[in-house]
Amino acid sequence: MTGPTDLLDIDDLLTDEELATREAVRGFVDEHIRPNIAQWYDKAHFPTEIIPELGRLGLLGMIYQGYGCPGRGAVEYGLAALELEAGDSGLRTFVSVQGSLAMSAIYKFGSEEQKNEYLPRMAKGELVGCFGLTEPTAGSDPGSMKTFARRDGDDWVIDGAKRWIGLASIAGIAVIWAMTDEGVRGFVVPTDTPGFTATPIEPKMSMRASIQCDITLDGVRLPASAQLPEARGLKAPFSCLNEARYGIAWGVLGAARDSYLTALTYAQERVQFGRPIAGFQLTQAKLADMAVKITQGQLVALRLGRLKEQGKIQPHHISVGKLANTRDAIAIAREARTILGGNGVSADYSPLRHANNLESVRTYEGTDEVHTLVLGRHITGLEAFR
Question: Cis before residue 200, ω within 30 degrees of 0?
Fold first, then answer.
C-alpha cells in the first residue's frame, strides 16, 4: 500500500513474495472486478464465473498445507483479502466462506477421506462449500441452536434451519453444525441430499453482489461418514470463525482504502469557489484522518498476521482487529461519501456501496458487542455474555 495510504512505509515490512501476491490480486481486481462491480451490485448478481480464476490465483484455502491447497502465509492471505475487498466486500466474502469457513472445518476436523475428497476440488474452485451455523433465532448465541441431529441406526438425520448462510444456493456441500445428544457436532452435507433446501434472501440493501441464504433441513439423512470426526463442541465452529475474522481484519481495509482514494481523487479534481476542494482545510482534515486510520489498521492487521504465522495468535487478538478495523472502515467510507457531496449517492462512486456492505461485515463473524465482550473478558477475567 504505497503512497497516500501508507504514511509509515509499511511496505518495507513486507517480503517480496507478499508484495507479489498483493500485486497479482490487485491486478485481478482492476481487470475483472472494478469494471463490473457497480452493475453486479445494482442487479444483485454474484459472478460465479470468477470462481475458477480465484482458484488459479491460489486464493481458496490459501493458508492450508497439502490436499491441493496453496500453503501460503497468513500475511499473504490478509493482503489478498484486502485487495479483494477493495473491489467489493461480497467478493472477499466468497473467499472467506469457501476457505476460512467450509474448507477450514474439513481441514481441521475432517477425516482423511473427507479431506482428500473435498479439499482439492474446493481449492481449485470446482466445488463450492458453505458453512451453516447461524440460525433464525441463534446468531450471537450459537449455543442455543435448535437444529438437531439424531442417530437412526448407522445414519444421522438432521432437522432444523439456518439463516444468512453465504453461498448456500450455489454450494455443492454444506458444513452444518447441529446439536446432538452428545453436544454440538459438524456434518458435511451434499446439497443435493433430499430434505436440504437453500433459498437466497432477497431483497438486500447490503452485500448485493454476494449470496446469503436461508437453509431448511427436513429429515436430511446422512451416513455416519458425513460427520466431521474431530469436531466436538462449539470450540470447533468458533475456531473456523476466527479464521474468517482474521481475514476480515485485513479485508475491511480494502474497502476503506478504496473509499478514501476515491474521495481523494475527486477532491483533487472537483473545483468549487475557484479551487479544488482538496485545497480547503476541512477537506484536508477529513483526508488526513482517514489516512491515519488506514495506516493504523494496516499495522494492527500486519501484527495479527505475524502472530498467526508464529502460531501465537489468540482469540482476543483477532477481536481487536475485527472490531477496530471494521468500525474504522465504516467511518472512513461514510466520511469519504461526504467529500463526494451529492455525487456520492451515485453508483459511479464506491464509498456508499462500501459503507452499505460494511454494515453486514460489521455484523457477521461477531458483532461489535460480541467482540467488545471478548475483550472485556480478557481484560477483567469476568464473563459478561449472560
Answer: no
Annotated catalytic, 365?
Answer: yes
Number of Cβ atoms within 10 Å of the Cβ of 202: 10
Backbone angles phi, psi at 167, to 5 degrees: 75, 0
- Give yes or no for a contact between 197 and 213, defined as CB atoms under 8 angstroms apart: no
Find the domain containing 155 and state its range. 129-226
Asked, for residue 52, whether it belongs to a domain, the answer is yes
Tens-digit pLDDT profile for residues 263-301: 999 999 999 999 999 999 999 999 999 999 999 999 999
Residue 238, Cβ density class (10 Å: 0-12 exposed, 13-18 middle, ≥19 buried):
middle
Radius of gyration for the chain, computed over Cα atoms and rounded to the nearest angstrom: 21
Domain boundary among the residues 198, 226, 254 is at 226
**With the C-alpha atoms ordered 365, 368, 372, 375, is the resulting torsion angle positive or negative?**
positive
Q: Residue 200 burial (CB < 10 Å; 0-12/13-18/19+)?
A: middle
pLDDT over 60 (residue 19): yes
Domain final residue pick, 70, 104, 124 = 124
SS3 label, residue 101: helix
Q: Are 256 and 327 in contact (CB under 8 A)?
A: no
Check 76, 83, 117, 365 and give the catalytic one: 365
d(CA 355, CA 326) in angstroms, rounded, equals 10
Q: Give the CATH number, domain containing residue 190.
A: 2.40.110.10
What is the rounded CA–CA span in Å between residue 142 and residue 133? 7
Question: Are the C-beta atoms of residues 256 and 331 closer than 8 Å to each other?
Answer: no
- Model pTM? 0.96
CA–CA gap between residue 68 and residue 320 (Å, rounded): 32
In a domain? residue 386: no
160: alpha, beta or left, given left = phi > 0 and alpha = psi -120 to 50? left
What amino acid occupies position 261? L
